[in-house]
Amino acid sequence: KKRNPGEPEFHQAVFEVAASLMPYIVANPTYEDMQILERMTEPDRTISFRVCWEDDEGNIRVNRGFRVQFNNAIGPYKGGCRFHPTVTQSVLKFLGFEQQFKNSLTGLPMGGGKGGANFNPKGKSDREVMRFCQSFMHELFRHIGPDTDVPAGDIGVGSREIGYMFGAYKQLTNRFEGVLTGKGLEFGGSLIRTEATGYGAVYFLQNMLDQKGVDMSGANVVLSGSGNVATHAAEKVNQLGGKVLTMSDSAGFIHDPDGISEEKVNWIKNLKNVRRGRISEYADHFTNASYHEGKRPWSVSCDFALPCATQNEIDISDANELIKNGVRGLAEGANMPTELDAMHAFQAAGVLFGPAKAANAGGVAVSGLEMSQNSARISWKEGELQDLLQNIMKGIHDSCHKYGEGKGKDGDTDYVAGANIAGFVKVADAMLAYGVI
Ligand code: NDP
Q: What residue stretches are annotated with the Glutamate/phenylalanine/leucine/valine/L-tryptophan dehydrogenase C-terminal domain (predicted)?
């Protein structure tokens, strides 16, 4: 905390990982002798820069952009960019720190990084977003490259923003190369990248349930968010026979006791991605649905929970309410949506808990596959990619299970410890091979 003052999100992420890694490190003293965890908590570099742009009224606006290049021991830095007013160095360091473990878990050769800006795309015109993205890339382009650092989307950065940024990079460098992932299919994007994080989170939940012989069909699922991850998680729950009861945005949540079917999910995608409206409109449109302003959906009774909006959206009282109402499993679609004491409460209650770095790794895994396709200048078919995603999620589950087996309540699997250790080992061993640098 002394080394990184004023960075609470970063402290939270490091504390969580260190707590479950320490017994493993003590049992394998080379990691401690070589200060591997200490080195992994310091980014290789953090770049912070001015992003200056002109709004539609001709006013000059100034934002702060960042790229945190955390660790490239096992591959080029890789991780999304977030555009949101809450973006700070601390938030991006927490995300970049987590990303190095997550990328390692996928089994693909990707290091960890994260970036973004404290820019609020809400209420901005298309042209304003374009000018912002171009200005952001005006500095970022000199720090990235297909073998150096490959950014992608995150909150507030979807296919529109990736298109503007890729266009700017191409113009600035005069190179057409796989420098960003999440691109449009016309210019090097991969099929199923858009769906991958949400689908992957549900596959991870399903893998944990398979281990216990539990079926998802007919189950009630409470889900938060209504963005990329949330809508695709909802789609996959429907495909596997579950019933999605809630979705949300930063203003409140909707509860639909009839279930948010695939057709209704498509309506939400249109509302959010095309009309850029609010989730409250759902309750005006669909009978029996209700809207709860300023509230989160965790009070609705369910079998499984999928937090897919943002960090720290489940606190201890939310966790206690979910447990009281009978939740049996949770997979984190968002990054660090569960506060530490809430996570401990779930684990103590024997709730299957799939941590973000494992459960939401499907997106970056398909981004890794997009990088491979770009390097080879080919495009794989949808079926091949669907199979690869399912296999990668199963592989991640099995690694977490292997390293977490017997470490949980009553000898159960501790997926949090399992994910941290499994993600750590590959990066740590590469760092050992490089010596002291
Ligand atoms: P989107 O921008 O598409 O959607 C974000 C959703 O979360 C929106 O519904 C948004 O509501 C809501 N939200 C944002 N901030 C808050 C807040 N402070 N309180 C409550 N709700 C909030 O982002 P994604 O779906 O891409 O990302 C969601 C999460 O998943 C993030 O944690 C991200 O880091 C993580 N993730 C995303 C990946 C991806 O492939 N996209 C990959 C791995 C992780 P509103 O519309 O009101 O802003």
A: 190-435
Q: Is residue 128 helix, strand or coil? A: helix
Look at residue 17 in the predicted model and tell me its pLDDT: 95
Q: What is the average per-residue pLDDT within 20-37?
A: 95
Of all protein residues, the one whose alpha carbon is nearest to atom 40 of ligand 1 is: 363
- CB neighbour burial string for 36-47, b if at least 16 within 10 angstroms, e if fewer: bbebbbebbebb
CA of 336 to the centre of ligand 1 (A): 11
* Protein residues whose CB sits closer than 6 Å to any atom of ligand 1: 153-156, 197, 225-230, 249-251, 308-310, 313, 333-335, 360, 363
Could you identify the atom of ligand 1 that is nearest to the CA of residue 272? 46
Going from the Cα of 112 to the center of ligand 1, the distance in angstroms, rounded, reads: 19
Residue whose C-alpha is closest to residue 115's, from 170, 154, 171, 145: 154
- Catalytic machinery residues: 114
Give the relative orientation of helices 316-324 and 340-348 as an angle to the nearest 10 degrees: 20
**Ligand 1 atom closest to residue 122's alpha carbon, by position in its atom list:** 48
Residue that terminates a domain, selected from 118, 145, 177: 177
Domain ranges, residue 106? 43-177
Of 114, 310, 332, 389, the residue with max ligand 1 atoms within 8 A of its CB, to mutate for a pocket test, comes to 310
Q: What is the largest CA-CA distance in the chain?
A: 63
Render pLDDT for 175-211 as a digit per residue (tens, 0 to 9). 999 999 999 999 999 999 999 999 999 999 999 999 9
* Gap between the Cα atoms of 163 and 159, Å rounded: 6
Structure tokens at 79: 């991780």
Residue whose CA lies nearest to ligand 1 atom number 2: 155
pLDDT tens profile 386-426 = 999 999 999 999 999 999 999 999 999 999 999 999 999 99
Query: What SS3 state is found at 335?
Result: coil
Q: Map tokens 């996570």 to a residue.
A: 343
Residue 395 lies in a domain: no
Q: ipTM score here?
A: 0.98
